[in-house]
């Protein structure tokens, strides 16, 4: 090959065999396109001084570019990966790569960075290697004059590259620490909200029980059997309200503490729905609501039976709770494409767009109100959503204000292994 041929060609570096994993590792440092930082700039200046080169860079290799976290003697912030020297250096993470004269090297002689500004003739790059062995980029030094580094300079450049890597690790750890602190602050606020809401919701039924109990103590001798029975009914209702709230609080705690282990198996959804229809017939009758169940032949669902019961217990209870007298609630089980779908439809007040956006949040108080004086903890739909997600199923609501609401849950069909 003639010298003229050499000066018109260059070779782009191949990509490392672990390129996807290397890029994923680079992304975890959250360093790309960040501002200059003094700790990195000082190491770059030190590399330039020790090696006696006008240019020194901390270069990070992305999929299609090399980006400079720190630079001395160079104005550009990045270059295309195709023409960069550093992608060659990261192919051997445990070695320093040195190019004494780029014009005499067939990989770089025709490279536009050699032929034109910044007219690179000398390059030395020490890879920045993670503890897992991924080379993220290099600490490199460059000159427009052919030269070499002494053994001492080479050792120093490699030592400085390890310090750059140490700074990257420290920076990542600080980011993680800040994120953890923010999460702890959020969890602490959530806990305080949780306790305040629980205390508020428990206060009313406790006050009612206390008041009714005092009424019995003070006036039981003057009360008729019907009056005593009426007071006892109020106490039972308040106790039931407290019981449901405590159960919901325990469910939320289990879910948020990741103590809920749902082992899905082949589940007959029809059986659960038939049980719930029977369970709620009396409550529906109190409001003269026609509770209808429509079941099509469907495969068994991949689900957790107890959680399915809890989900539709909540959805059917809500449909009855928010329905006016003399209406209809329909529950449909059918197959939609390859999914098994259950829809719980009421003819109640419906939901505004604002309500629908907050529907599955914790302690949500919607604008709709129960039509028979029933209670709501604001936790039921939050629990439902968490259980649905845990089974990798889907739930959503279709509603218009004043036109009722339909809650739809879709499950995957059970596989042979279930």
Can you offer a commentary on this structure?
It is a single chain. The chain is α+β, with helices and mostly antiparallel strands and 418 residues long. It has two domains: 3-177, GAF domain (Beta-Lactamase, 2-Layer Sandwich), CATH 3.30.450.40; 260-412, Heat Shock Protein 90 (2-Layer Sandwich). It is 45% helix and 19% strand. The chain is built from eleven helices and 13 strands. It has helices at residues 3-6, 19-28, 38-51, 86-89, 112-115, 151-219, 225-256, 269-286, 305-321, 353-357, 380-390, and strands spanning 55-61, 65-72, 78-80, 97-99, 122-129, 135-143, 265-267, 290-295, 301-303, 328-336, 339-345, 394-399, 405-412. A six-stranded antiparallel beta sheet has the order 3-2-1-6-5-4. A five-stranded mixed beta sheet has the order 8-10-11-13-12, covered by helices on one side. A hairpin with a 5-residue loop joins strand 2 (65-72) and strand 3. Helix 3 (38-51) packs antiparallel against helix 6, helix 7 packs parallel to helix 11 and helix 9 (305-321) packs antiparallel against helix 11. The model is unreliable at 1-6 (pLDDT under 50).
Topology of helices and strands:
Blueprint (H helix, E strand, L loop, with lengths): L2 H4 L12 H10 L9 H14 L3 E7 L3 E8 L5 E3 L5 H4 L7 E3 L12 H4 L6 E8 L5 E9 L7 H69 L5 H32 L8 E3 L1 H18 L3 E6 L5 E3 L1 H17 L6 E9 L2 E7 L7 H5 L22 H11 L3 E6 L5 E8 L6
Parallel strand pairs: 8-10
Antiparallel strand pairs: 1-2, 1-6, 2-3, 4-5, 5-6, 7-9, 10-11, 11-13, 12-13
């Amino acid at each position: 090959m003639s010298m003229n041929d050499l000066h018109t060609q260059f070779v782009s570096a191949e990509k490392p065999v672990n390129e996807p994993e290397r890029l994923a590792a680079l992304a975890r440092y959250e360093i790309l396109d960040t501002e200059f930082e003094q700790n990195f700039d000082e190491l770059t200046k030190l590399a330039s001084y020790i090696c006696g080169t006008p240019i020194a860079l901390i270069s990070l290799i992305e999929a299609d570019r090399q980006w400079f976290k720190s630079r001395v003697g160079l104005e550009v912030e990045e270059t295309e990966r195709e023409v960069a020297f550093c992608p060659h250096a990261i192919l051997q993470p445990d070695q320093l790569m040195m190019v004494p004269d780029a014009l005499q090297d067939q990989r770089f002689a025709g490279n536009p960075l050699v032929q034109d500004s910044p007219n690179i003739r000398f390059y030395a790059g020490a890879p920045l290697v993670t503890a897992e062995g991924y080379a993220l980029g290099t600490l490199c030094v460059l000159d427009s004059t052919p030269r070499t580094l002494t053994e001492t300079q080479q050792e120093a450049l490699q030592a400085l590259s390890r310090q750059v890597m140490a700074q990257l690790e420290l920076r990542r750890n600080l980011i993680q620490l800040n994120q953890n602190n923010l999460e702890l602050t959020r969890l602490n606020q959530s806990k305080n909200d949780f306790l305040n809401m629980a205390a508020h919701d428990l206060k009313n039924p406790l006050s009612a029980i206390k008041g009714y109990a005092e009424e019995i103590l003070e006036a039981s001798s003057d009360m008729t059997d019907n009056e005593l029975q009426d007071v006892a009914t109020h106490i039972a209702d308040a106790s039931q309200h407290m019981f449901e709230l405590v159960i919901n609080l325990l469910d939320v705690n289990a879910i948020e503490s990741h103590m809920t282990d749902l082992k899905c198996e082949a589940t007959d959804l029809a059986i659960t729905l038939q049980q719930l229809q029977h369970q709620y017939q009396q409550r529906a009758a109190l409001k003269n609501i026609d509770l209808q169940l429509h079941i099509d032949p469907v495969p068994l669902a991949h689900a957790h039976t107890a959680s399915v019961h809890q989900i539709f217990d909540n959805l059917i209870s809500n449909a009855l709770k928010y329905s006016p007298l003399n209406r209809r609630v329909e529950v449909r089980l059918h197959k939609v494409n390859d999914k098994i779908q259950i829809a719980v439809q009421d003819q109640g007040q419906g939901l505004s767009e604002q309500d629908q956006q907050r529907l599955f949040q914790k302690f949500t108080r919607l604008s709709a109100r129960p039509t028979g004086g029933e209670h709501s903890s604001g936790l039921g739909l939050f629990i439902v959503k968490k259980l649905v997600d845990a089974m990798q199923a889907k739930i959503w609501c279709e509603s218009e204000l004043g036109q009722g609401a339909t809650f739809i849950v879709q499950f995957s069909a059970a596989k042979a292994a279930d």
